[in-house]
């Protein structure tokens, strides 16, 4: 479908341009949200007659978006979710969740404004882009962790999925001899001790036979 853009749309064109888009995209998003008109003679004439008003309205929206951007850009939000020891979430953080998270902090954002290609499925610090206006983008940080305490540790640079965090060891300091020491006195269970005693007895018997 050919449409006339009533504002700048990323990757499509500038205000006033006639572009071709998928029918579904036009009917479900561009037309009902007032971002475009069907491209025909009547609408072209209408756009030219209202261009000044549309440009003024677009400028006003951009200024409003910029005010929000000045407050929102770079903010970090803690998101507590259940996850396994390796950091894999039991679920995910999707677009609708991000809208709710920002909404709880007083930022009214629609799902169409969240630029998220794939849901977040691991703990960690995740950057998410928000399109407040066709010409105004901001980036927020989602601090996804199992608890608020872990989120605080993560914010200070700790990797919650490292061996140190999971098992309480410093994986960078481990050496091969830390895994097995042939000279160490390992605590054997009863069965192992019995087998060791039996083997020792057999060796002593063989030594006595040789000396006889």
Automatic annotation (TrEMBL):
Record-linked InterPro entries? Ribosomal_bL9, Ribosomal_bL9/RNase_H1_N, Ribosomal_bL9_bac/chp, Ribosomal_bL9_C, Ribosomal_bL9_C_sf, Ribosomal_bL9_N, Ribosomal_bL9_N_sf
Q: Name one Pfam family in it.
A: Ribosomal_L9_N
Region described as Disordered: spans on this chain: 172-212
Kindly list any coiled-coil regions of this protein. Answer: 42-69
Which stretches does UniProt call biased (Acidic residues)?
184-212
Recorded hits in Gene3D superfamilies, A to Z, give: Ribosomal protein L9, C-terminal domain, Ribosomal protein L9, N-terminal domain
GO MF terms, alphabetically ordered: rRNA binding; structural constituent of ribosome
> Keyword set for this entry?
Coiled coil, Ribonucleoprotein, Ribosomal protein, RNA-binding, rRNA-binding
Protein family per UniProt: Belongs to the bacterial ribosomal protein bL9 family.
Q: What does this protein do?
A: Binds to the 23S rRNA.
Under PANTHER family, the record lists: 50S RIBOSOMAL PROTEIN L9 (PTHR21368)
Q: What is this protein called?
A: Large ribosomal subunit protein bL9
What organism does this protein naturally occur in?
Answer: Martelella lutilitoris
Where is the organism placed in the taxonomic lineage, from the top? Bacteria, Pseudomonadati, Pseudomonadota, Alphaproteobacteria, Hyphomicrobiales
